[in-house]
Amino acid sequence: MSAAELEARLRAIGAERYHDRHPFHALLHGGRLDRGQVQAWALNRYEYQRCIPLKDAALLARIEDPQLRRVWRQRIVDHDGDGPDEGGIARWLRLTDALGLDRELVESGRALLPATRFAAQAYIRFVRERSLLEAIASSLTELFAPTIIGQRVAGMLANYDFVSKQALAYFDSRLHQAPQDANFALDYVLRHARTREQQDAVCAALRFKCDVLWSMLDALHFAYVEPRLPPPGAFLPQACSPESDA
Ligand SMILES: O=C(O)c1cc(C(=O)O)c2c(n1)C(=O)C(=O)c1cc(C(=O)O)[nH]c1-2
Predict the structure, then answer these.
(1) Closest CA to 128 of 72, 57, 182, 193
(2) Nearest residue CA, atom 21 of ligand 1?
């Protein structure tokens, strides 16, 4: 198929399967969660943030072309920053702080849902084991991220008195980083997926990544919304300090 047809197929996968369609996000953005449920989301999502630079380092280690490495390494800088309190991971921790979560608990990962851990690890493994083309294609969910980030920031600010604009600063940076990263990855995929087999493989990679994101929200929904069955050892909202409102 032509590059334009492949792009249309990739965009159709996002339209059908991206996690903006998950009911948990409708609840989160619509103000229908309580503070404890928002805490559970932020704590689990931290694991995804923590694993993104690990996944990008695994990807970087496999790139032979210095020019491509130069572009890709920026993703690690975006998440890690150039100093201890800079970058996306530090900004995510400012969100969990603002929500009143204990930093040590968040960073330790001990209260995570097992499915969060499994999904994040599956993403790292996918990038390590599949072809470079599939690994790059698996980042293409970011094509669809700006819309959901816009909805999230507007919805959370309008609906939760415990969420401030500063607490959501993580998403300000993502609003320009995500389109830049996604457009680069899309251009790479469209230029390198030439055979039908490669084109099918990049579509499967994007479906896989949508599944990673979707399964994390399924687990949150099951544990904290309906039927509210958090697995043993998972975060329990009342277990964290109530005094620190944002
Ligand atoms: O808030 C979101 O809905 C969302 C989605 C995604 C995504 O689509 O994978 C990423 C992010 N955020 C994000 O913040 C981020 O750093 C990121 C990196 C990647 C990736 O696959 O390399 N996806 C995402």
Answers:
(1) 57
(2) 139
Spatial CA neighbour of 99 closest among 24, 163, 17: 163
**SS3 call for 68:** helix
Residue nearest to atom 10 of ligand 1 (CA): 142
CATH number, domain with residue 7: 1.20.910.10
- Residue 241 falls within a domain, yes or no? no
| Number of domains making up the chain | 1
- pLDDT digits over 7-26, tens only? 999 999 999 999 999 999 99
90 part of a folded domain: yes
Please list every protein residue whose CB sits less than 6 Å from any atom of ligand 1. Answer: 52, 88, 139, 141-142, 145, 148-149, 174, 213
Task: Specify the pTM.
Answer: 0.94
ipTM of the complex in this document:
0.94
User: Tell me: the pLDDT tens digits for 107-163?
Assistant: 999 999 999 999 999 999 999 999 999 999 999 999 999 999 999 999 999 999 999
